[in-house]
Structures are given as C-alpha cells and as structure tokens.
Amino acid sequence: MSIEIKVPAMGESVTEATIARWLKREGDSVKKDEPIVELETDKVSVEVPSPAAGVLEYINVQQGGTVSVGTILGAVAEGAAAAAKPANAETAKPAKAEAKPAAPAVTAPPPPPSVRRIAEEEKLDTAKIAGSGKHGQVTKTDALAALESARVSAPPKAPAAPSGPRARAEREERVPMTRLRKTIALRLKESQDIAAQLTTFNEVDMSHVMALRSTYKDSFEKKHGTKLGFMGFFVKACIAALKDIPAINAEIDGDDVVYKNYYDIGVAVSTERGLVVPVVRDADSASLAGVEKQINEFAVRARDNKLKLEELLGGTFTITNGGVFGSLMSTPILNMPQTGILGMHKIQNRPVAIGDKVEIRPMMYLALSYDHRLVDGREAVTFLVRVKENLEDPQRLLLDV
Asked: What percent of the chain has pLDDT over 90?
C-alpha cells in the first residue's frame, strides 16, 4: 500500500518551502516517523517524517523545488522490504499536483485598519489572502507574509541579473541564495528603508559581572545544570531598563504606538545557514538560570536546525553579541517592527580613569540602535545608561533600584 508524503502545515505565516535535501533515496528502507526529507522555509528548516515503515517508493519533487502546504512530495510503500522495487514507479508518480477544489466562500470580517493601510500602500488585494484570524479575518501577519512571498517569488530586477561574461569565471563559484538568506536580505533592507535608525554607544566595566561569574559558575552549573554565561545578565539588565523606557519595548502600527507590557527578548544566534533570532518568552518572570537554560537550548537547536517556527516569531526587543566573533564595535540593524536592538561586543582590558587613578579594567562597548520615529535621543541614552548601571552594579537588579 502506498502512503503519500505531503508538505505539512508550517505555521500561519508560512505557505511555501524549498526542498533542501532528501535524506533518503528511492528504494531506501525507512522507519515510521524517521526524517525523510528536509524543507527550508524563510524562517526554519523542517524535517518531514515518514508516514509509515517500508520503502521510499518514489520522489515527486526534487531538491531545490518549491512546494506549498499539501503538495505531494513522494510516497512510501508500507511494509515493503528495501530490496523490493515498485513494479511501476512511473505510473505511481502523479504527473502533476492536482488542484484541489476551492473551499466554499466564507464572508470574512473586514481587515483591521493596519491591514487596510498596508493594502493601500502596497497595492495588495486582501481578497486573495487566506486570513488566519477569527472567522477568516486577514491579519497584519497575513498581509506582511503575502507581501514577502510576492517579493521573494517576483522575477529579479535588471541590476540583480547576471552581468554577462566575467573575466575570471573559471575561478568563481555561483550558487543560488537559500530561502533563508533571501529573507534575511529582504528584511534587513526593509528595516533600513522603513525605520529612522540611529545608534548610540556607551561602555561598561564588566569587572563585577565577571567576578560574580567566576565565584559562582561551578555551584551555578551544579545546581541548575547549565553554564553561567553573560547573556543572562544582559537580558535581565535590559528588561529593567525597558521598564523604565517603555518606548523601546513598543512598535509603530500605522498611526498607533503599541506599548507592550510583556518582555519577549530575542537573542540572535549565528548558524551556518544564517542569523536566526529565537525568543525567550516572558523573560522578566524567568530566573537568571531559566534564561540561561533557554538560551543555551536555543543555541544548540539552532545549529542543528531544530528550532520550531513559533520560537522565532514575535519578540519585543533583541540582543545580539558580535563579541563572540571578536567584534569591538558595530551598529546592529533593527529587527522590525521592534524599536530597539542592543549590540554586545568583545570584552577587552583597557586603561580607564577610576577617580584620580588609571586602572586596567575589562571593558565592553555597547551599541543601541533604535527607531528615531518613536524613540528620542534622550530616551535611548537613558536606556543605555540604565543597562550600564545594572551591569556595573548587579545588586541593583536584585533590589530593583
């Protein structure tokens, strides 16, 4: 009996994926729920498991192909042995994915004002978008996903086309951009085009945090089962500062400002595929150990392409650490629609004036990029000073002062 392998639902804002690679070949034996093909979306990689134990009978879409939810990827011959080959694989293959009958028309509520503004500005027909909101209402997420899908699938403009014969073509390698890399490029450029981005800098003396870490790292790991890093301190220091400066934990939605009374902190993680930003939900209510555990788990699963789509969505503020690669100073780009992102950098011993003396201290430059449309310079500088104070005197976090 043949059981079809279909593209699963991958989240409300993801409608297409690319076949990254087949993990099995036609004729290979497979176990039930064993990963059989890897799909790449604009956010995560998704492994599709085998629907049954048997043999991979045929592959319908090859590596590099673009598929949508429900597309037939291939089939598994249930219970067959590896040596057994399908009697007629060609007849078993569907020539094309047949179009499914359209669902009955349902009268959906009109889209909210933010969606109507996007539709007017971008010439978007909301009637052609499948709404994920209540009673089929088109949400802002649906509208942005439709725009992104159209931009990614649109034919490249003239400047992006190959430039013709190249003088040293034999010593070059040309590979197509991955879906994730295309999305990263699109969003970073979109961020620069939309937001009025500005960066302010400060420096922090890491002596006290490093002393705390050195004193308690062994007992911390023994009790909590995770290493004590620096990121937990930065997350807690930023949350305390965000509570003082709520504009940096907000977003602009059309003509409205949405202030978020929750703290979902995105932590940028670099992988071979590109940068991803998993989100620590309600980080203000988690302990420092809880934050460290979550970040360490994200880092491991990000590098193994095991992150779930919902773990990458949302976020009210982002922290990125270029210091792990040796960066001394940089200007991070906003993760839209957020209004602030903090850049950490390399800790380096430098001479600093302490009172009337010059001492060597472990110093780190901090960079806060912010959206000047909503955040004033005074607020940005005050925020960064609060972060600096919380890190140079960690007891402030304990006492909430």
From this structure: 42
Catalytic position from the list 345, 376, 393, 400: 376
Catalytic residue among 224, 284, 372, 393: 372
CA distances to 20, 205, 344, 345 from 321, in Å? 28, 16, 5, 6
* Amino acid letter for position 372: H
Contact indicator for 303, 271 with CB cutoff of 8 Å: yes
| Cross-strand bridge partners of residue 320 | 343
Q: What is the dihedral of CA 125, 127, 132, 136, to 10 degrees?
A: 160
Tokens 């709404």 correspond to what residue? 131
User: What is the rounded CA–CA span in Å between residue 393 and residue 399?
Assistant: 11
The rounded distance, in Å, linking the Cα atoms of 373 and 194 is 10
Mean pLDDT of 375-381: 96
Please, what are the domains in the chain? 2-92 (2.40.50.100), 197-399 (3.30.559.10)
The position carrying tokens 């940028």 is: 268
Is the pLDDT score of 151 beyond 70? Answer: no
Closest by alpha carbon to 364, among 199, 210, 197, 198? 210
Q: Rounded to the nearest 10 degrees, what angle do helices 140-153 and 179-194 cross at?
A: 120
Segment 16-54, tens digit of pLDDT: 788 888 988 888 999 988 889 988 876 677 888 898 899
**CA dist., res. 306 & res. 36, Å (int):** 15
Find the radius of gyration of the CA atoms of the chain.
25
Considering 31-35, 205-209, 268-272, the range whose residues carry the highest mean pLDDT is 205-209
Model pTM greater than 0.70? Answer: no
The SS3 call for residue 147 is: helix
Please, what is the average pLDDT of the chain?
84
DSSP 157: P
Length of the chain: 401
Confidence of residue 87 (pLDDT cuts 50, 70, 90): very low
Residue 86 confidence (pLDDT) above 50? no
pLDDT over threshold 60, residue 160: no
The residues, any chain, with a CB within 8 Å of residue 123's CB and separated by 6 or more, are none
CB 248 within 8 Å of CB 318: no
Tokens of 117: 């503004």
Known catalytic residue at 264: no
345 is catalytic: no
